[in-house]
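Hi U.,

Before I forget, here's the chain from the pilot set. I'm dumping it here mostly so it's searchable later in email.
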Amino acid sequence: MKRILMILFVILILLPAALIGGCYGAIRFQYRETFMPGLFVNGVYAADMTPQQMNDKLKENALLPTCIITDAEGEEHSFSMEEAGFREDYLAELQNLHETQSVLKFVNWFLENGNVSYQEKQLLPDVSYDHNKLTAYLDGCSYLKDNSEDKNRVIEIRRNTDGYYLYDETQNLLNHEKAVQAIEKALDAQEYEIDLAKADCYETFAYTSQMKQTLALWDALSPYMNTEITYESSQGDYVIDRKKVSNLLAQEDGKLLLDDVGKPYLDEKLMQEMVEELAEHLNTVGKPRSFRATRGVTVTVETGTYGCKIDEDEELAHLYAAVPSGRVETRTPVYKQVSYTGINGLDDIGSTYIEVDMTDQMMYYYANGRQELSTPVVTGNTSLGRGTPQKVCYIYFKQRNRVLRGEDYATPVSYWMAVYGNIGIHDATWRRKFGGSIYKTGGSHGCINTPFDEVSKLYDMAEVGTPVIIFY
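Structure:
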């Protein structure tokens, strides 16, 4: 009985233990120098490779970092760490990982899944670089050139095509030695972005009394140079910037004039001329306009009273406050007169208007692009020199039951719409016929005579401000 128990003990206990031990030893022996299956290190499969082989593989795949250096003006400079003899080494971490790999975990994964389970490890390398090589490289970088020793520095207010600016040689005085030390310190900490200003690599400069005066003057002048006032227009924007402002400052023989407290100021005559130039650019009153007539031709009317006109006094006052303070704005000017459509541009007639075609002796009224009225008319008598002038104007006044008076007449009318000076659109009940060539010898004193029924309709439809285009 004991013998049977002994045999069972050997079969059930000792043989499995020996088998497991043998397997453990075989696996351990097989991977005594290499990594077991199922392991990725930094994305590289490590199975059957020694730590040294794996180290070589990782170094092959490594991307050399780039060092970025930012100077005091915010400009970035960069170089590859290859210039510094940069080296990465994973061997110590890989050896430690190899020593701690577990045969039991490997066997357990295999038994549970029927195959090898994979695991990912991320290792950080030991980093080093050649200090002498780095120093030699940095010594040759122009952006790291030492300029802190030169004491012959100047501060001047200068002018170029864009305006006045401060020429200052006392700023950004780089200390090369401090810069190299700051870069080495950052690289030792595996930091590859260095801001030289934050690292205190620049020296300060002791100002002379003349330099201080120049800086005080620049403090007063610089707001003028920051000015950028934009007047938007369909004819093109009018911009008052540092270039234009530089021409507005009071000067004599090319030198800035200063007021009683030592500050620059604007020249009154030049400011007035500039506002007049602004008005010429923005105003549309009196400027030629092309117009597509009902009879299918494009006509150009040279002058008139319709359109936009800025208030020059208001704009001058505004600019006297805005320019010295360095205002940056997009400005809509104060207008003395605006177009019916509210558009600032030569396309400001819009789709609601009155058209007086003196060649055809016809008048039309369009509302939102739709013709609402079409009637023959009689315009000024051309044979007597009373021809109705060609104008782009507008209804500036309306009145019922008015008496029209001249040197030799006083005529009552029921509907009166003044459009240009003493010229207007009105009924003419004394006429039996309208249109044709009546105007040449039997025309009006200059007004647009209109049939009673038609002018009564127009009076109710057309508002004060409605554009009126009168042309041949």
